[in-house]
Amino acid sequence: MGEGAGRPVDAGDAVVRALEAVAAELDATLGPALLDQPDGVHRHRKAVRRLRSTLSAYRPFFDDEAVRHLHRVYRDWGRELGEVRDAEVRIAVTRRFLDVDEGSSADHRRLADLQRDHRSAERWVARRGTSLVAVRRRSDLADFLAAPPRTEKARRPAARSVRRRLVKEGERVLRRAETAAAEPASLPALHELRKAARRLRYATEAVTRPPVGLFGAKAPALADSAERIHDLLGDHRDAIAFAESYASVDRPADSPAVRARAVAAARLSALPRAVEELRDALARFR
Questions:
Q1: Enclosing domain of residue 269
Q2: CA–CA distance from 1 to each of 7, 18, 82, 158, 236 (Å)?
């Protein structure tokens, strides 16, 4: 656990406490993920992303190579989990835009293929989650937390230093938003914005929730606005992916692909307001 009870003694202590909480979340969600329990993979993958986002946002407080190593091994695990989660999402989106009860035989085959892909990915993750690689990965995280490789920056006052890092993360999101606004049809630019918003959300939640609890009432608005951007762009991505996969059979004006593109357009049209909400939240947080 971090150094002592009560408020963090410095910036490094605050982040170590946050990382310990994420490690506990990783342990609690691993079993349900490997057993493919409802929402199990999703919850465990979120914990992996929380860990990586927290490590990235507060990287200056720790030895860079140690952070890079943990970030890399959990990135690889996150990608493997992503195969299962992406299959789950594709199934859910397909059910959303297709009437599978009334659909054609091609629609039923499409759904059956997605379900087969999901089962295959889940079996792979179940094996990988109990492998020696998985044991080493968790051991590396335990070693990091047992003796955090702190830098001099980690010894600075917690609130001031952590706030500075979150402001930088917020500014990073706004820069990505400007790039995306200049290239509204660029899926890569939207993807980079989504990743930046996710990192800001998780980095903020890590230090504003127990056991850290910094900043009081202004910080949750920062996380909430970042989550709003992330969710809008996630819905946009999923709808576009479905529309593109269905394009070969897209004929009627009211086809599933047309409806999916309409949903994607609606999500994208809501993005500027969400970005302004983040800008306002960041201004209040500074």
A1: 157-286
A2: 13, 10, 30, 16, 40
